[in-house]
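Limitations

Structures in this collection are predictions, not experimental determinations, and the ligand pose is part of the prediction. Treat each record accordingly. The example that follows, with iron/sulfur cluster as the small molecule, is included so readers can see exactly what is and is not provided: the inputs are given verbatim, and the output is the predicted complex.
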Amino acid sequence: MPDLLDDHPGEACGVFGAYAPGLAAAYLTFDGLFALQHRGQESAGMAVSDGRQLWIDKDMGLVSHVFNDYKLATLQGHLAIGHTRYSTTGSSTWRNAQPVYRDTGNGGFALGHNGNLTNTATLAEEAGMLPGVVASDSDLVAELLARAMASAGLEGVLEGRPLHPATPNLPTLPGIAPPPRPRPRVPGAATPGSPAGPSCSPTSGASPGAPAEARPGAGGPGTGPEAVDRDLECALLEVLPCLEGAFSLVLCDVNHLIGVRDPNGFRPLCLGRLEEGGWVLASETPALDVVGAHFVRELDPGEMVVIDAGGCRSLRPFPPGRVEPRLCLFEFVYFARPDSRLYGREVQGTRTRMGELLAEQAPLPVDTHAPARPAMVMGVPDSGVPAAEGFARRSGIPYGQGLVKNRYIGRTFIAPDQHKRDLGVRRKLNPLRDAIAGKRLVVVDDSIVRGTTSKQIVRLLREAGAAEVHLRIISPPYRWPCFYGMDTGSRGELLAANLSVGEIRDFLGVDSLAYLTLDNLVAAVDAPGAGFCTACLTGDYPVEVPVALHKGVLEAPAAPAPRPAPVAGG
Ligand code: SF4
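Predicted complex:
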């Protein structure tokens, strides 16, 4: 259910992984997840391996609520993945908390997913999964992997579905060791990544499709490196080409840490190196910083890295024709931390440039009042602030703080009536009356989704004595739902899908309203040649989305789809 008091697209998820010989990976993962908390607050979890067993711990709530010193001390091992969740497919329940775990009879594996598959229902149907076998798109991927590991290949799992041929490994990029030839498990089986060869044929004894509880010690004693080998890697090479949509994945079994980025690279995923010699994967670069890892590079769209005792190898599991970089443009506008680096750019700087370009594009109208009143540029905390600084610098209008945000308030509850919703906004944001009174305000915000919070902020500012309120938005109107991992609600809930800019201005009660153009937004990011997803702004969906895609697609397959159909490419 959307938080009506937070008028932003819901966050995606945060993923983290550490391969850190000699270090306590659980503590690194805790710090990494803590740095990624903004990407998901519904649940948190981690899987930790000591090379013999895989231990899973996850629960509903914030990272600091789920884990404490006592728990972390029991999660011993040098290898871990972690996840913070905001639900986009599958409801917000313990079962859907991640990492997802599957017991494959040799220690099992765990998976954390950021993004949203667009062919979830099709894959589940083709694999013959009955309702309830899997509850989310991430659960589905884990199930397909488990079945691939337990069978001779995915052909038996997705019967009749043509598999995309895997592609050869590409040259290794800086910071990554050359890829050795993977060792086939069965004589005569294909080398993973070879074009159109037969499937890898792992020899796990697990029952196909057997559901597994995520629990400590699921691997059981007696499992070791020789038992696990590359089953998970081979299964990924089989399953990944069948997945469509957005997926940045971290996975681990008892010996390997694996990171995957979908062929469009909708969601970020980066690689870091620990000074002690280990490796780290994270959704955003600040999670590398907090664990003392040096940024190596972002994973390429369509890249898979496998990290184990032999080093770090880069594989390309997708056909080259599917690889088309389309990083979510809203990562720059709102989702990512300001200290994150995406496409080699620090996000804070891109937001400042968005404000500068907005000042050129839509300046404050000349004051016709006599005597002229003072003006001030202010940002809506937090992501509107650097853009407001940029607007002020370019326009010459003084910057000031007009709203104080309560930094200790968590997710607000849905208030049952308008009065209580107003109070909810006041709990989060309080105006600085002396700074605001009598001034013509330029208020800079990142986006307007439903318009609920913007309307109440305008009312707060007017009650605090603002002479005029001129709203400036650092993104174009948000008109189309996101199907790639952000929770925006249906098209009917999106203000700009239903009202013109003039009508939105009147609805919000502002004196003027302007949105940054798409050209200026892309120019502000200043990454020449880089590809972006702009679907929620343009309706141009890079990956086709099915008409009936909705959050509960696997939980209530017979229910009518609550979202009207956005047309692929339209
Ligand atoms: S539709 Fe919008 S929010 Fe979703 S991935 Fe594309 S740019 Fe990002």
